[in-house]
Write a structure and sequence with these properties.
two-stranded antiparallel ribbon; 319 residues
């Protein structure tokens, strides 16, 4: 029964990515812009899934980690033109180290305080970018004139290439998440979330394993931010504000922490619907917060069960 469900999930996932790949081939460039933004959000949702879906850490720092990758790439490419892979390694590696280092001391806080502490990380990042105006452009932002360059392929430009880069990054995030979830690390993370005392009695170092998950989520967001920076050709602190973190948390809560297809579908469907509320202006953040509150009260995260990475609600069990 479990094996057939797993096969069905894999088939559904393959169908979804096949459909997205087909859309990249047939949609005109101007329509790919919106879908690429959806994929960018989906990568950040999967990044948060490492923190919340596995480690049980409610994080509001994804915007900061995403922005860190974007600014590192924007600042290093003029000095290292053509070294995009090396810069990607620097951006993801440094963000991984920072996220893991931030997670360690925050383990001393309660779960509710953890969310507030990671909110502080986002606010500190924004203020740091604004303070270093001579380097980052401050509120005005900065142009990203240098293109990403990959071996053999060369410089990347155009909507279709970036669309498939976003899609490829999303696929990698899904495969890594599925691998980690079924690994010894994933089982340790779920044990820490279910029963920290029992996990510690079995020799699991809760702070260490959760910092690894937090670091993986930060590194993945950094890569998404790097792609987004070069795709849009511009970076500003407003792109990586609290709104991005709230959106990632909202879509993950609605799709189901620990799941894979649910959060991705939540992004693709709900982000299209939410794109029609731009008339709210700055009140969008309040609206997203209200939706998040409702999702926490009645969504699948409210009664989740972390055994073997699955979450349940009144509708049944999902993967």
């Amino acid at each position: 029964m479990a094996a057939s469900a797993q096969i069905g999930t894999r088939a559904a996932g393959a169908s979804l990515f096949g459909l997205l790949a087909a859309l990249g081939c047939i949609l005109p460039n101007y329509e790919l812009l919106a879908v690429s933004q959806h994929l960018f959000l989906a990568v950040n949702v999967m990044a948060l899934n490492f923190c919340l879906g596995l480690g049980g850490q409610v994080s509001l720092a994804q915007g900061a980690f995403c922005g860190l990758g974007a600014y590192i790439s924007a600042l290093l490419h003029p000095a290292l033109p053509g070294a995009s892979l090396a810069i990607a390694a620097i951006a993801s590696g440094s963000t991984y180290a920072l996220a893991a280092a931030v997670s360690r001391p925050l383990e001393k806080l309660g779960e509710g305080f953890l969310a507030m502490a990671t909110l502080g990380v986002t606010l500190i990042f924004t203020n740091l970018i604004l303070s270093l105006e001579s380097l980052t452009g401050g509120t005005a932002g900065m142009m990203v004139d240098f293109k990403l360059a990959l071996p053999i392929i060369g410089p990347i430009s155009g909507d279709k290439p970036y669309y498939f880069l976003f899609l490829g990054l999303l696929l990698v995030s899904v495969l890594v998440f599925a691998r980690v979830r079924s690994s010894r690390l994933g089982r340790a993370l779920l044990a820490c979330h279910d029963d920290p005392e029992a996990a510690s009695a079995c020799g699991v170092h809760r702070a260490a394993v959760r910092s690894l998950a937090f670091g993986l989520g930060g590194a993945l967001s950094a890569l998404a931010g790097m792609l987004q920076a070069h795709y849009s050709g511009f970076v500003s602190p407003g792109q990586y504000s609290l709104e991005l973190s709230l959106k990632a948390l909202l879509f993950l809560v609605i799709g189901g922490p620990g799941r894979i297809l649910g959060p991705i579908l939540a992004v693709l469907i709900l982000e299209t619907a939410l794109s029609n509320i731009h008339f709210l202006g700055e009140a969008r953040v309040l609206f997203h917060g209200l939706l998040l509150g409702l999702a926490l009260l009645w969504g699948p995260v409210r009664t989740f069960h972390t055994g073997r990475g699955r979450f349940t609600n009144t509708a049944g069990t999902g993967t």
